[in-house]
Amino acid sequence: MSSLPNCPQCGSEYTYEDGNMLVCPECAHEWSTLAEADTSEQSAGIHDANGNPLQDGDTVTVIKDLKVKGSSLVVKVGTKVKNIRLVDGDHDIDCKIDGIGPMKLKSEFVKKA
Predict the structure, then answer these.
(1) Pfam families, alphabetically (predicted)?
(2) Within-domain flag for 3
(3) Domain containing 63 — which CATH number?
(4) Does the CA dihedral 40-44-45-49 come out positive or negative?
(5) With b meaning 16 or more CB within 10 Å and e meaning fewer, what string describes 48-87?
(6) Which end of the chain is more exposed for a tag (fewer CB within 10 A), N or C?
(7) End-to-end Cα distance, the chain
């Protein structure tokens, strides 16, 4: 038969490939084993300025004054940011800073607290 994995939602063995996605004809669930592997590799690959690996939920400290684009606000050195979330892209930390609100940061400007 095929070497494709069973459907993770219903367990059907009749999965098939559609481009780079896997599809279950019984429950119409679509998933990509490649996307899941890439996401876990990128999450494991995000490090702070000192080379420490970052994870979702970590607390970090800003190591440089950062101007907030489109505003006169500045995120000062030493600002603690709690409960970060790692995302894909150039700015790989999604967070909420007290007094400023939600924003995205680059991991090169923070250190793990």
Answers:
(1) YjdM, Zn_Ribbon_YjdM
(2) yes
(3) 2.30.30.40
(4) positive
(5) bbeeeebeeebebebbeebeeeeeeeebeeebebeebebe
(6) N
(7) 51
Contact 73, 83 (CB under 8 A): no
List, for residues 19-72, the tens digit of each pLDDT value. Answer: 888 899 999 888 886 645 555 444 457 999 998 999 999 999 999 999 999 899
Q: Are residues 63 and 105 in the same domain?
A: yes
Residue 76 belongs to domain spanning: 59-112
Residues 84-97 have pLDDT tens digits of: 999 998 999 999 99
**Pair (103, 71) in one structural domain:** yes
Q: Which CATH number belongs to the domain containing residue 18 in this structure? A: 2.20.25.10
CB of 97 closer than 8 Å to CB of 91: no
